[in-house]
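Person: At home tonight, work slowly through the protein below, taking as long as you need, and write a paragraph about the fold.
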Amino acid sequence: MTTLRPGIIADVPAVLDLWTDLMRAGEEVDARYVLADGARDAARSWIRNDWLSGRYPFPALWVAEEEAIVAFLSITVSPSSPVVATTPTACIQDLFVHPEHRRRGLATQLVRRAREAATAAGYSRHQVGTLGRDTRAVAFWQRQGFDPMFVQMIAS
C-alpha cells in the first residue's frame, strides 16, 4: 500500500537519493545538463532549509511511501512577475519516481495532491519546467494539463 504525505526531516536521506537519481537521469537525456561539484551537499541543505522550512503556505515536499520512500515531488511559490499579470503561482520544482515503481500512477497522484494543497492555499496557477529534450517528461506534463508558455533556449 502506498501512502502519499508531506515530507518530514526524517525523509531527507531517501529524498536526496531519489533527487540524485533524477539529476543523473537529466544528464542522460541532455549532455549539457551537468551537475556542479558539491551539488548533492547543496541539495541536502536546500531540501532541509527550503522545502522543509515551513515558509510556504502549503507543504513544499510530498513523498510516496511504501516500505520506503519511492517517489517525491517538490513545489514552491513562484515569484510574481513585475511585467506579466498573473495570479499567485505555485511552481513544481522536481518530481521523481523510482524506476521499479513507475507506471502505477504515483507521479500523477503526487502532482494532484500537491496541486490541491497549493490551490487550497490560494495558489490556483501552477507551473513546471522540464528539460526540453526529455520527451517522456514533456508528454507527462502535458497529460497533467500543462501547456508551454515560455521556452528557454540555450546555444552551446
In short: The longest helix spans residues 12-29. The longest strand covers residues 69-78. The chain has a mean pLDDT of 93.
